[in-house]
Amino acid sequence: MKYGKIVAAMAVAGVLCVGGYYAYASTVVSIDEEELYRVVSVVDGDTFKVQVGKHSITVRMLGIDTPETVDPRKQVQCYGLEASGESKRLLGGHAVRLKLNPDREEQDRYERYLAYVYLPDGTFLNEYLLRNGFAREYTFGKAYMFQKEFRAIEREAKKEERGLWGVCEK
Q1: What mean pLDDT do residues 110-122 have?
Q2: Is 112 a catalytic residue?
Q3: Average pLDDT over the chain, rounded to an integer
Q4: Tens of pLDDT along 61-106?
Q5: pLDDT band for position 26 (50/70/90)?
Q6: Which of 119, 19, 5 lies closest to 61, judged by CA?
Q7: Which residues contact 37 (CB under 8 A, 6 or more apart)?
Q8: Would 129 disulfide with which of 15, 48, 116, 135, CB 3.0-4.6 Å?
Q9: How many Cβ atoms sit within 10 Å of the Cβ of residue 26?
Q10: Cα 68 to Cα 23: distance, rounded to the nearest angstrom
Q11: Is the model's pTM score more than 0.90?
Q12: Where would I find the H helices in the chain?
């Protein structure tokens, strides 16, 4: 009888430890759309890290996808270095405003915050990268707030052969 209570206590302790670790590993922060957040580093063309209070969080730009440069499973894709370089030029050492989509999840399965990104001068970075051919429109799961606009912008960039559309997609 004593043995059963010890095993049950150990199982509860194990669940608490795992639960405590998950809460620690998965930091949830509150994003204020009026706040400027300092960019800590740029991962690639559509992903970067910002400082939110005491935490460094990863942000994935919503509605766009830039060619891969850091995925270890893939080779660097056509126009990936250009897209990554443009994001580094625009984001590196600067601050941004983040806007979450009200009708979508805040984070993806990799715990990256999904956001629309605005530079201090008001430039809508997601749109800028798409318009200039550094990115493709990207929908994962359900629709997002700017989906129709982004698809139209991509069609225009393709037609004008801007960026990757003039180099990679022939």
Answers
A1: 96
A2: yes
A3: 87
A4: 999 999 999 988 999 999 999 999 999 999 999 999 999 998 888 9
A5: low
A6: 119
A7: 50, 51, 52, 95, 96, 97, 98
A8: 135
A9: 9
A10: 30
A11: no
A12: 2-25, 80-91, 125-131, 147-159, 164-167
pLDDT (tens digit per residue) in 1-14: 444 444 444 443 44
HSE of 66 in the Cβ direction (CA atoms, 13 Å)?
A: 34
Task: Please identify which of the residues 68, 82, 127, 137 carries the catalytic annotation.
Answer: 68
Structure tokens belonging to residue 154: 């991509």
Distance of CA 127 to the CA centre of its chain: 14
Q: How far apart are CA 108 and CA 61, in angstroms?
A: 11
Q: Which residue in the list 82, 86, 112, 127 is annotated as catalytic?
A: 112
For 37-167, CATH number out of 1.20.120.450, 3.40.50.720, 1.10.730.10, 2.40.50.90 equals 2.40.50.90
**CA 46/CA 137 separation, integer angstroms:** 12
